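Example record

One chain of 644 residues, shown exactly as stored in the release files.
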Amino acid sequence: MIKMKNIKAIFRRGQTQASSKSEPGQLREDLTRCSSATNLAETKSKGAFSKLRKSASKDKLDKLTEKKGERDVASNNNKPNGGGDVDETLEVEFLQRQLTEMAKEKCDLVLELGERKGELQILKNEIVKLKEQSVFRIEQLSDENTSLRNRLRDVAHSPLSDNEKRQLLLDAERHSSAPASIATNLLDDESGDVTSCPTPDWDKHSSSNVSEVSVACLQDKINQMQETHYSTNEELQATLQELTDLQRQLTELQQDNERLSDEKNLMFDSLCRQTERLNDARTEVESLKQLLYREKDESGQFESIVDREQKLVALLKSAQEERETLLLKQEQLANELQDARASNVEHAAEIEQLTERVRTLESTLDAKHAEHKQIDQELALAKDQCSGRQIEINRLTDLLENARTKINELEQERALNDKSELDELLDNARKEKDGLESEVAHLKEQLARSRNEIEKFREQVSILQEECKVTRNNAKCTQSELEYKCERLTAEKASVNDQLQQLQEAANELQVQAQCQVEDKRQLSTVLSETQRNLSEAERRNNDLDREIDELQRIRKEENEEWEKFQNDLLTSVRVANDFKSEAQQELQKMIMENKAHRERIRQLESQVDKLKVSEPVLRPESFSNDDMATRRQKVGLNRQNSR
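Predicted structure tokens for this chain:
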């Protein structure tokens, strides 16, 4: 009876605990409804309510851990037989920790992927800027090239005669070896009209030297610009190749992200199935509790021990089957965790490779920035030189106009001089003309070569411009694609974060439910052990009672046999007693008759004695004493018979 009372108290406590557990379950449902409503309302309220949900889940976990500690203390005080349940709880906690670690790793990977996307966007912007700068520089170089070609054409098609060119060259040779002060002194010592204008000859000489030097410098600069253009083109091709590689890596990462989302959906489905099974198990536990709490039937009799034992055995079988299924699911989850860890390791290796590539790209970008700075400095110097040359060209044009006017004046003066001087001058002029014609032919060849080179440069510049346009279009396409992919990845990241939060909350709820299930299972195991003990004791008592009943039946048979014998003996004794009674009654009647007769005789004798006393006063004492004794004996015997 005491054990049955303990069992009832334990089950009542389990009912109270189940009711207390149902309250946080209702609270959880209310929280999930509120969360769905707030998700539809606003994102800001969603963040605030998620914090409230987290705080409420923490409070529930604290309460449940406190209740679990109290139940563990009570179960340890009652009977410490929960080793298997503790192992199951530890395994479930280990799986949940692994799930949380996976979620954290996934979040870290998503954050790193976002950082890499930001770096890629920065690199793309820098590449676009570099392309624009290169295109702008190519346009500037083409403009400078056209301006220099125009200047060369102007110099080549100048309207100077052969004698003028010869005179200018001789003056240039003369003034090239001496400074301006010496040249002016020499010209002052000479006569007449020659000394009247010393500075124009020096200016002509300097302009010719400047034109030759400028042509050489321009050719060098064109070569340098061509080399820089080739180098920039190669760098752009390398950057485009790296962009294609990064785009391919982005596609691979997107595929991995989709695979992870599929795995997450599978895990979410498995968690939903586990929740359904936990609810089914909870309903079964409640039904078991109701069956165990039911004390009496409607007829007022207790249920038989055999029926209870059969029900408990069936429940134990179902619990064992559920445990096997849960172990199989646990193995599957462990395999999935291992696969996820392997994929995380692969992602980490890919991320390291991407970081290395990004570092190399950063180093190449730094080198390109340094090269572009140098090119900018060179371009600034070239612009300064071009501006100085433009000033010199303007000054030389003015000097050429002055020289032409002076040459016209000199020709007029020569026409007025003697014919002899004219013949000599004509011979000298013819010689100078022949030399100048040879020089002009040589200069024409050089101009033709320079024109061919310029045409080649133009073709190369046009090709490079087309390539730059193609690269610009490709870069724009890749940029638009990458922007679309980045937006898509950000949206997927947000959805993944939301799903991860939901999964974490579901995992926490499942952990709480698993703890409740483990506690209920522990209580059921204790109750089952106690009931099994009670059953064993009841069976033992039943066996003892059967033995006692057998012995009592045997004793009863013996007693019945003895009783029958006693009844038979008693009947015989009653018959004998009746016979004795009848005989005694007959003898009593005889004795009464004899007593009456004796009384009458005694009376007669007394009367006779009285008569004798009167008649005979003296009698012998012996005779009288004997007669008295006989009479007394007769009286005593009669009194005894009357008393009977």
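Notes: The mean pLDDT is 67.
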